[in-house]
Backbone:
């Protein structure tokens, strides 16, 4: 099987690495950045590098793993070039806009809208790692618009990386992700900005940072290009989530300002219910 | 050496456990909650349980590890009871209010205002663990008001738990901690509240939560009583930190609402400088 991975960053690079280790799989890499092409070859993430046309024409399966704004642009082109047996998968973190973009494309049935729920705060081909997807969940959206054989092939590809696939609507997916992933990134970036700003006056401030800070600010290391595109494409749901967050934050702030510990205690007791979810 | 630990929760319990394992150290536990007394004995965190008077009178070193509001109330009483050789240490997460409270106490020189920078999101005697303090930093504030022999003894106690001690002013301490610890707790609790709220409509939402969410929401499991007191006692600096955070959050929100990816990208690139601090 020939699999072409477009975009050799953390996600695409890790998928290429995983698939290339399998018997009878030949992985072709496509990336607009010469630097990424070089790093992917140096790290043996792919067997060869090709341009977009050649990579897609040769492939049985194409995986598009570029930032979500670029996926929206590339996907119609890839579906134009691909032959009638090719399966074209995108693995972007937002799904609704991308699905809408190709809704009426003549080759829509060859397309699989996927999102493997895995990642780290690092980026680029150098960040690609083995087993990134092992034991993780994968979402396929609007699978009823994809040909059954394409869903089968894509599911097998995801299974082979250790992912378990679930199905849901693209709007529902985007709304959920706004709350349980995208919002966490905004709050983490914001925390980073806040403490870096005070560091201008208080040079030693990070000496006192403990594991709690590290845990909450870790995502502030994430790639701006990737996340600017995600925030933009999931605009509507993310603003909804942010406004709910800001509402709770203002409640908290008011409790602190007015020194009503009973109020802040009540909010925290409510938040403690997260123990039900994060059990470890 | 007889060491009395007042408050047998995560911090006090872990200290008791650590100290009790050392040769020639006898650890007396004091806790207002019968349940905590029982758990501390069951887990052998302490050698015996005593009431406040007896515990303090017998001790060479007293460690107060209750919530910070309770420390403010207990500390003057403990200094009243303690004899002239006793060293009285508090290990609360805020220092300025506590230091002010005993500034003119006749036994001020026997008091050490400390804060070991260690913890987990769990609480109570059951959460006490060995090696919690190993390799961590300890802060002593206003050490110039403590007798040199008391500073020496306290530093030896902290060293024996694997802590390295640094000195700073209590205001400076509280301001720094507001940014690199207390703010992270507020944002984490708020994130928990936000997602628990949307869960009322979207029952399956946590199925999609990834490691990024877990990392940023982990602190929402923390003890409301402990943290309500910290937020209240560090009121002024925490509100300053929160307002700076809210300012950046509003900038971010505006960039997202107005779909200015160049703006959100610029904010995230600035936040990426956190890589300098969080290197792993």
Residues:
């Amino acid at each position: 099987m020939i699999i072409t991975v477009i975009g050799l960053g953390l996600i695409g690079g890790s998928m290429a690495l995983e698939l290339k280790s399998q018997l009878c799989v030949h992985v072709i890499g496509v990336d607009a950045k010469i630097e990424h092409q070089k790093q992917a070859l140096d790290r043996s993430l792919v067997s060869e590098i090709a341009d977009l046309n050649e990579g897609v024409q040769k492939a049985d399966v194409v995986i598009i793993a570029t930032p979500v704004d670029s996926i929206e642009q590339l996907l119609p082109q890839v579906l134009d070039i691909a032959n009638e047996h090719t399966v074209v998968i995108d693995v972007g973190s937002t799904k609704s806009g991308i699905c809408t973009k190709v809704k009426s494309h003549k080759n829509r049935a060859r397309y699989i809208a996927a999102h493997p729920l895995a990642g780290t705060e690092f980026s680029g081909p150098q960040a690609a790692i083995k087993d990134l997807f092992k034991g993780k969940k994968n979402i396929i959206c609007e699978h009823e618009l994809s040909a059954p054989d394409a869903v089968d092939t894509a599911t097998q590809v995801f299974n082979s990386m250790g992912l378990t696939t679930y199905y849901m609507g693209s709007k529902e997916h985007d709304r959920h992700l706004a709350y349980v992933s995208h919002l966490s990134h905004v709050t983490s970036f914001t925390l980073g900005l806040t403490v870096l700003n005070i560091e201008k006056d208080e040079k030693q401030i990070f000496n006192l940072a403990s594991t709690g800070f590290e845990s909450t600010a870790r995502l502030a290391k994430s790639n701006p290009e990737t996340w600017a595109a995600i925030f933009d494409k999931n605009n509507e749901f993310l603003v909804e989530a942010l406004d709910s967050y800001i509402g709770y934050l203002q409640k908290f702030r008011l409790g602190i300002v007015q020194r009503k510990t009973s109020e802040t205690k009540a909010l925290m007791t409510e938040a403690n219910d997260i123990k039900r979810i994060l059990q470890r």
User: Anything to note?
Assistant: Chain A has eleven helices and eight strands. Strands of chain A lie at 2-6, 26-30, 48-49, 61-64, 87-90, 111-116, 137-141, 164-168. Chain A has a mean pLDDT of 96. Residues 2-168 of chain A form a domain with the Rossmann fold fold (CATH 3.40.50.720).
